[in-house]
Design a protein that fits this description.
nine-stranded mixed β-sheet, Rossmann fold, alpha/beta, 551 residues, four-stranded parallel β-sheet
């Protein structure tokens, strides 16, 4: 494997650990827990793993642990730091007992079911320390939901002598981990299951999981790119840049990047939904800022737009729901729609079968966006919201609004647009020092949860705004984070997603400053991630975490 000079130097970096994990540990149990909602239903579904206590590790006397074989899975989308979680697990179980072994299941949860694996040795691990990506064993999106899958997993783990499985993933993957832990406990297999919190979206967090890993690095990558665009905007002085940012269900990425770069416009999906803002109101707001800046002679700016915004606009949500029903796979209306060879005729047909309100919204959309709502559909016949070019939708609608304003004498400037979508650029970056340390600690901590015989827990490392030595390591029962939600027509137990809270310190900071940032050019240029230098430059957590945890 050919490596760059950066990767060669980063391989030498030794991630920092909390003091409590640096030698032997003492397990301290806290209060028994309950789920965040729907306690009776969750308890009934998880009788063996519900109500377990919170766990904290403190420095303790040296213990002798038996050797243990551990399996690890990377599940879902990539996030910076996954390799360091695996490095932490490897070093942790080897420190506990040198005879321990680590097996990686290939291609995500499917590797467990299909019995595809590799033993992870020191020579393999050392190639991937402090690197981005999930390529050490690959990832996948197979959901572990059926007993046949669990039993296939039991077969290979019994064959390899694996006593514990660590699933590294987001809210859905950790929900699967909890279901698997419950099943293995009920079947008396002796197999433990531990989860690790991953997602760049930042929506897997609570008091015990202060942030998901990868969020820090990804938002720093995006913020660098946004800063570069802002610098270009102030140099060229002729474009408005509409930037869509990854993060479908929650706007944490957009909020953090706004705090880092101070753009002129930042849309937050959760605010749009709460205020029931229409598409027209959003466009009016954006056009108003463009006009005010133009009046000051500044015909340029930057707007940040969350990927999933259209699903939070009430009228668009209703429109998408109607389209999903009317153009459902195999329906009569879907067959009729497909019979049109002209896009214009197809759009006219769709407008005619929608409700009056949805037809009004549909016909107001730029034709290219209207086509995306009807032509790009998933295997179930549903609109693929992630493919909707929301940045172009808003840019084109703002352009139309400004034409109206110009005729009325309310806009006298110029408006040119450039469009961007920052997503995959941030998922596999070399982890920041924060994520390198945090991920390594999560993995190392998971090895102690295993050594102590725990199952159904998520690895938890807290107090993250303090120096790493002062971080608090332990475990939180996954059932504590769960509630019941309707998924595909059925009520299911899932980890509750953490959306942007409008009464949170990070959002309040944005709200207090966005009027100034809108009109003044207050751009901040964060630059690239710093791996070497003073801690106040290199080791700082996100502004979101700093504001949330401020005393």
């Amino acid at each position: 494997m050919t490596i760059s000079a950066l990767q060669s130097e980063r391989a030498k970096y030794q991630p920092k650990l909390p003091n409590s994990l640096q030698s032997s540990v003492k397990l301290v149990e806290g209060k028994n827990t309950q789920s965040v909602a729907d306690q009776d239903e969750i308890k009934k579904l998880f009788p063996n793993t519900y109500g377990m206590p919170l766990i904290t590790f403190e420095a303790g006397e040296k213990k002798q642990y038996p050797a243990v074989n551990v399996g690890v899975i990377l599940s879902g989308g990539q996030a910076p730091g996954g390799h360091n979680v695996i490095s932490g697990i490897f070093d942790g179980i080897k420190n506990i007992n040198p005879e321990s072994k680590l097996y990686g299941f290939l291609g995500g949860p499917g590797g467990l079911v299909d019995h595809e694996y590799v033993e992870l040795t020191a020579s393999i691990i050392d190639e991937f320390r402090n690197t981005g990506g999930f390529d050490i064993i690959g990832s996948g999106r197979t959901k572990l939901e059926e007993t046949a899958q669990y039993d296939k997993g039991t077969e290979i783990m019994k064959e390899l002598g694996i006593k514990a499985l660590i699933i590294i993933g987001g809210d859905d993957s950790n929900t699967n981990a909890c279901v698997l832990a419950e099943y293995y406990a009920a079947q008396n297999t002796g197999i433990q299951v531990i989860g690790c919190p991953k997602t760049i979206d930042g929506d897997l967090k609570n008091d015990m999981i202060e942030t998901s890993f990868g969020f820090d690095t990804a938002t720093k990558v995006y913020s660098e790119l946004i800063g570069n665009v802002e610098r270009d905007a102030t140099s060229a002085k002729k474009y408005w840049h509409f930037i869509k940012l990854m993060g479908r269900s929650a706007s944490h990425i957009g909020l953090e990047c706004a705090l880092q770069t101070q753009p002129n416009i930042t849309l937050i999906s959760e605010e749009v939904e709460l205020k029931k803002q229409t598409l027209g109101e959003i466009v009016d707001y954006m056009a108003g800022i463009v006009a005010k800046r133009a009046a000051n002679g500044e015909n340029f700016g930057v707007a940040l737009i969350p990927e999933g915004l259209v699903e939070f606009v009430p009228e668009m949500k209703i429109l998408i729901s109607e389209l999903n029903d009317l153009l459902a796979e195999g329906s009569e209306t879907e067959q009729k729609f497909k019979s049109f060879t002209s896009k214009t005729e197809g759009r006219a047909f769709v407008a005619g079968i929608l409700s009056a309100e949805s037809a009004k919204v549909y016909t107001s959309l730029p034709s290219g966006i209207a086509d995306q709502l009807t032509l790009d559909r998933d295997p179930h016949g549903n609109v693929q919201v992630s493919l909707i070019e929301t940045e172009k939708l808003l840019g084109e609608m703002v352009k139309s609004k400004l034409k109206e304003m110009k005729k009325a004498g309310e806009f006298k400037g110029k408006f040119g647009t450039q469009y961007h979508f920052f997503g995959y650029e941030g998922r596999c970056a070399a982890p920041s020092n924060f994520d390198a340390d945090y991920c390594y600690s999560l993995g190392y901590n998971a090895s102690f949860l295993i050594a102590e015989g725990k199952t159904g827990y998520m690895s938890s490392v807290r107090n993250l705004t303090a120096p790493a030595a002062e971080w608090i390591a332990g475990g939180v029962p996954v059932t504590m984070m769960m509630n019941m939600e309707r998924r595909h027509g059925h009520m299911k137990p899932v980890i509750q997603k953490a959306l942007v809270e409008l009464d949170s310190a990070p959002f309040k900071f944005l709200a207090a400053n966005r009027e100034k940032w809108a009109i003044e050019t207050s751009f901040v240029y964060p630059g690239p991630i710093q791996y070497w230098g003073p801690a106040e430059v290199c080791d700082q957590p996100t502004k979101t975490l700093t504001l949330e945890r401020a005393k």
